[in-house]
Amino acid sequence: MFIHAVSHYLPEQVVGNDHFTQLNGLSDEWITTRTGISERRKAAPDENTSTMSVAVVNRLMAKADLSTVDLIVGATYTPHDTIVTLAHVVQHHLAIADIPTVSVSSACSSLLNAIEIVEGYFALNKASRALVVVTEHNTAYYNEDDTVSGHLWGDGAAALLITKERQSDNDMTITGLLTGGAAHAGKAVEAVVLQPLVRGVIMPYGRDVFQNACIYMPKASLQILERHNLTVADVDYVLPHQANLRISRNVMQTLGLPEEKLISNIQYLGNTGCAGCAIALSERWDSFQKGQRIVVTVFGGGYSYGAMLLEV
């Protein structure tokens, strides 16, 4: 499989840490020391995961022909509509008839689960050009005055055109992909919860999330490298789920890699859920060099995890 093109969309409104200082007394130093976040984006009142999906797909159309897409996979845990999913919205926008449209949610690891669905369709010869759209509208569901996690969340979207065959020399190869679930571990089913009929997203066991993210992201990264007879010495960049800069640094330390090889956007975007890694990939796309290898590794609420090996 190959990533032929990628794009990202960010809402215009920037929310700095001073907002939370005024709201609940959390200082800029307190937030940045614990999370690495200085600012994040917030969707406008007329924006949601569906509108952001359309916006990011429009940006992707400026880079690639989407008229022959034969599979659409959407991913989000903050859907605007649970019946007309973002995949349906995108299909309607593109006016492509009679193709599979699938939407998934496995928390912040959903990007890799979406791509794994594409892998399955390709393997069964049911598709050859897939559009993957990942987006989160976290600020629709969070509690700003939640001093535990309210300051973490940001909004955004990304879209990827994934093809079965190479389309150009600039395509990025998806060399390997693995996903897993660790819902048996720790406080997995309690640590991060979003129950819309009850309350917004809460994180009552943040330490447990931190500890397990620091276990499973390096573990998955090493597993995907081992499957392809590679070691960390062969890795040029690591792109972890953008949950917390301290977690990302811990992952790098566990892998024995310098921070210069870390790709991170949480400092200015906050935690954008399953969209974070794809947004970062889009931001850095033009800077990657031929022959470089990137490990994308994710971890989400419910303790789903995964890793993907990319080669330029």
UniProtKB/TrEMBL annotation:
KW Acyltransferase (keyword) present: yes
Transmembrane segments: none
Protein name: Ketoacyl-ACP synthase III
Signal peptide start-end: none
Keywords: Acyltransferase, Transferase
Residues annotated as domain Beta-ketoacyl-[acyl-carrier-protein] synthase III C-terminal: 225-311
Domain Beta-ketoacyl-[acyl-carrier-protein] synthase III N-terminal: 104-169
GO MF annotation: an example: 3-oxoacyl-[acyl-carrier-protein] synthase activity
Taxonomy, superkingdom: Bacteria
Pfam families on file: ACP_syn_III (PF08545), ACP_syn_III_C (PF08541)
Entry keyword annotation includes Cytoplasm: no
Gene Ontology terms: biological process: fatty acid biosynthetic process; secondary metabolite biosynthetic process
